[in-house]
Amino acid sequence: MTSETLPISETALNIAIVGAGCAGVGAARHLMASGAKVTIFEKSRGIGGRMATRRREHLSYDHGAQFFSARGASFIDAIAPLQSRGSVAPWSARWGRHFGSHLSEEIPDEPRFIGTGGMNHVIRGMAEGMTIVVNARVVDLVRHQHLWSLNFEDAASRDGFDVVILALPSPQVVPLVTGIADFAIDIAAATYAPCWALMVEFETPPPIAFDAIKIDDPVLTWAARNSSKPGFVAEPETWVVHAGPEWSLSYLEEPAEVIAETLLDRFRLIFGIDDVARHATAHRWRYALVQDSAGLPFFWDPAVRIGACGDWCLGPRVEAAFDSGTALAEAILRG
């Protein structure tokens, strides 16, 4: 492998992006606007990463990222067309904070947005027109004759890429770049906390005055009246409840059905809910919340033309993931 930095081709770059979350789609959006050819590979059957929506019958649950803010001009520009056609909307919720037995109102300091009918609608809207291959788990990267090949778990390899972008959680980036890129050790310093998420449907609406609640509790940290979001079915009432990082880590390998029962019992106890749930299920997020960010907007090795981006670079916000992907794309285009 040569360490010599080669000039970017005068023809259109052929770029592979691994990961179809906000960072990967944000990078693709910027690169394609400059004429690059981009293919996104996603290990799951759907796109969006933690901007995820679970569907059951006629109901939907935002069981990952609950909302997002938009502060920077670039991200505001990206979501503006989605707002204009109704795919993104402000979440005009009543916000509360729960301390012990005390529940008080909280006033948000900025608008908070959601994807109408599902957070993954935000990524779907941003990704329109992009080439995305789902169910494609990358297990190995090989470089030969200045081009990259991607090897997959259950599919034939794909080759001929000038550049590879890894838009994945940092623990998933490290094994792919170790021995390849200079930044592998630096990325390992960025860490995530896990989260168990409960999705629950009630026959009778719980007696809770707020739609979104930050919870000070050894087990739970968040509860949201999912059915209060624009574009969601209002009845029956649905809630998404998140467990805290320490509790989630302690019970990370427990069966989902055990976790669902435990979190539901805790939620009912905290808020005095007598009604039984019509349905409850739990989802485990191994890489839910950035704990220690890398402190850099992206990582890029121009010698071998491989980069990495994600919210773990800048901090635990949807917009941070987008900004990271966009910044890496700009660095690649600069050569």
Task: Characterize the overall form.
Answer: globular
Q: If you average the pLDDT, what whole number results?
A: 93
The CATH architecture classification of the largest domain is Alpha-Beta Complex
Give the total of beta strands. 20
Counted up, domains total: 2
Give the terminus-to-terminus CA distance. Answer: 19 Å
Total helical elements? 9
CATH class of the largest domain: Alpha Beta
**H-E order:** EHEEEHEEEEHEEEEEHHEEEEHHEEEHH
For the biggest sheet, the summary is: 7 strands, mixed
Q: Report the sheet-strand fraction.
A: 25-35%
Percent in helix:
25-40%
Low-confidence stretches: 1-10
| CATH level-3 fold name of the largest domain | Polyamine Oxidase, Chain A, domain 2
Output the strand order for the largest sheet: 7-6-15-16-17-14-18
By secondary-structure content and strand pairing, the structural class works out as alpha/beta
Radius of gyration: 21 Å
Descriptive account of the structure:
There is one protein chain. The strands form 5 sheets. Strands 7-6-15-16-17-14-18 form a 7-stranded mixed β-sheet. Strands 9-2-1-13-20-19 form a 6-stranded mixed β-sheet, covered by helices on one side. It has a 3-stranded antiparallel β-sheet with strand order 10-11-12, with no helix packed on it. It is of the alpha/beta class and 335 residues long. Strand 1, helix 1 (22-33) and strand 2 (37-41) form a beta-alpha-beta unit. It has helices at 22-33, 73-84, 120-126, 170-177, 184-187, 245-250, 256-271, 311-314, 318-334; strands spanning 14-18, 37-41, 54-56, 59-61, 88-90, 95-99, 102-106, 113-115, 131-133, 138-144, 147-152, 158-161, 163-166, 191-202, 212-216, 220-225, 237-243, 277-292, 299-301, 306-308. It is globular, with a radius of gyration of 21 Å. Helix 1 (22-33) packs parallel to helix 9 (318-334). Helix content is 26%, strand content 32%. It contains 9 helices and 20 strands. The longest helix has 17 residues, at 318-334. The chain starts with 13 loop residues before the first strand and ends with a helix. It folds into 2 domains: 1-47 and 127-189 and 295-335, FAD/NAD(P)-binding domain (3-Layer(bba) Sandwich); 53-119 and 191-292, Polyamine Oxidase, Chain A, domain 2, CATH 3.90.660.10.
